[in-house]
Amino acid sequence: MQVQRYLQLSIAVALATIALKTGAWWVTGSVSLLSDALESLVNLAGAVFALAMVTIAARPPDDEHPYGHHKAEYFSSGFEGVLIFAAALAIIWAAVMRLLNPQPLEAVGLGLVLSVVSSAMNGALAYSMLRKARAVQSMALEADARHLFTDVWTSAGVVLGLLAVMATGWAWLDPVIAIAVALNILRVGASLVRQSAGGLMDEALETEHRSAIEAVLQAHSHDAVHFDHITSRRAGQRRFVDLHMHMPAGWTLGRAAAERGAVEQALMQAVPGLRASIQLLPLGVEVHLADTGAAA
User: Which CATH number belongs to the domain containing residue 176 in this structure?
Assistant: First the structure.
């Protein structure tokens, strides 16, 4: 199943969970269940925006974007993080109002059943989405999956809290639980925004991918060939590495090209989705490009 299909399924599940959780809040009057429903609204908005960004990221390179549109996925992660902040503030406001004016809960048992059903749906989808995200290196899909997992844990906390309210009769526990939920999703929102900013700032490849690249280059290094000036970056589902490959000046162009081609193939097999740019240089020759921006 393609990334777009998963996000379309996420939208459908978000609509279903909104209906279930809103129903749970309606029959119980629980502000913690209301906070859970608000987070599902964020899931819906995030999935819709993620679908739009993934669609843009899949576009082929053009004259204005010769390296492709892969970074569009990072906007999805950042947007979802901002939505989470907004939802958390709304939850805290509603919880404080309820804390100041406590109200008894009604039909808690039915509300809990609706919440558990919606959480089971989110959990199953999140597990499947996260596996797919890791397979295709999609940050947008991973962000949506992790947010769904957060929603599952949020719902679990709400359910346990409401059971405590039923057992103790302490109505003030309900808004306190809602505030705890809000603080937790604020943490998740901050993480998503930080990941988005890191991607837009051209972070280096993950440690395991850099190690795989180093292993390939080590395997192809010998007395006549060595590598240096190795740099890497991430852009959505794409991974890029640039490097210099030094070899004897007396080699023919065909031999040099064949050696470089073998290295490129090995790198792409070691790191799925990798694009390698290898500059050929004679042994003993170094090329340094000055960073004029840094000197300004």
Answer: 1.20.1510.10
Q: Is the pLDDT of residue 3 over 80?
A: no
Sign (positive/negative) of CA torsion 164, 28, 16, 6?
Answer: negative
Give the whole-angstrom CA distance, residue 101 versus residue 257: 76
Is residue 27 domain-shared with residue 171, that is, in the same domain?
A: yes
H-helix or E-strand spanning residue 150: helix 139-168
**Is the domain of 166 the same as that of 132?**
yes
Residues 6+ apart with CB under 8 A from 115: 20, 21, 24, 33, 36, 155, 158, 159
pLDDT band for position 243 (50/70/90)?
Answer: very high
In sign, the C-alpha dihedral spanning 84, 90, 94, 99 is positive
Report which of 129, 45, 52, 50 is spatially closest to residue 87, judged by C-alpha positions.
Answer: 45
> CA quadruple 30, 32, 33, 37: dihedral positive or negative?
positive
Distance CA 163, CA 247 (A): 71
Number of domains the chain is built from: 2
Amino acid at 58: A
Tell me how crowded residue 59 is: count the other CB atoms within 10 A of its CB: 12
For residues 219-239, average pLDDT? 83
Provide the 8-state DSSP code for 156: H
For residues 69 and 120, membership in a common domain is answered with yes
Q: Kindly state whether residues 196 and 218 are assigned to the same domain.
A: no
- In this structure, the answer to whether residues 188 and 290 fall within a common structural domain is no
- Look up the pTM and report it: 0.59
- Note whether 194 and 217 are same-domain residues: no
Range of the domain at 29: 3-200
